[in-house]
Amino acid sequence: MVAIVEQALSDREPNNLRSRAYDSFTRHLLARDLRAGQFISQRELVELTQLPLGAIRELIPRLEAEGLVRTVPNRGMQIPHVDVGLIREAFQLRLFLEREAVASFTLHASDEAIATLQREHDAIIARCEAAAASAAGITEEEVALAQDVDWSLHSTIIEALDNSIITDIYRVNAIKIRLIKQEQTRLNTRVLLPTMREHLAVIAAIRSRDPARAAEAMGAHVSSARDRALEMR
């Protein structure tokens, strides 16, 4: 399984240049070719995306509406700064969406879907604990694998709602969360195992089929991620 942002990008067959421009912009943003606070012109976006200027001009209103860029007179477009306001707003939206989503998932997910989440987490935790105890320590490969498991849990829970409006809102917010994480709290060797153990608490609550307990566990997990981001400011 992959994160909801990558899934949206890989599943869509862009049927026009504007869609292709949006997908290209998002990929470059997530690949860190574009950084928080960076200014970029329309011409630079043409070079980056290899798409015509007309497509870029059509793209800009969507990016502005989604809060992925802001236009500054005489300076061009700016990628959002990662500041306290962005962190609080993005994580508040996560709390609202994911607490309700996990409550629904707890009631309706199949036993196999839950068991799959448990197996994935047990496997990555065992691998990272073994690596942490070795001379080499946890490697970048293991961090990347753990990050995939991290995003997969949240994507699975949101996608289970089968609600395209919520999925689109979550997708845009997930891009902002990724931008925050790149600058502040991207999963690393220090927070990897504590984060995975927070996930285990969420999965245990889901397995109990108690939606209130699951919502509380998810709330604690998202709040912990928010607090880490705020501490780095």
Question: What would you note in describing this structure?
Answer:
With 233 residues, the protein is mostly helical. It has two domains: 75 residues, Arc Repressor Mutant, subunit A, CATH 1.10.10; 148 residues, Four Helix Bundle (Hemerythrin (Met), subunit A), CATH 1.20.120.530. 73% of the residues lie in helices and 3% in strands. The protein contains ten helices and three strands, in the order ααβααββαααααα. It has a three-stranded antiparallel β-sheet. α2 crosses α4, α5 packs across α8 and α8 runs parallel beside α10. The two termini are 32 Å apart. About 3% of the residues have low confidence.
Features:
233 residues; transcription; GntR family transcriptional regulator; Arc Repressor Mutant, subunit A; WH-like_DNA-bd_sf; Four Helix Bundle (Hemerythrin (Met), subunit A); 3-stranded antiparallel β-sheet; 2 domains; DNA-binding; single chain; 10 helices; mainly alpha; GntR_C; globular
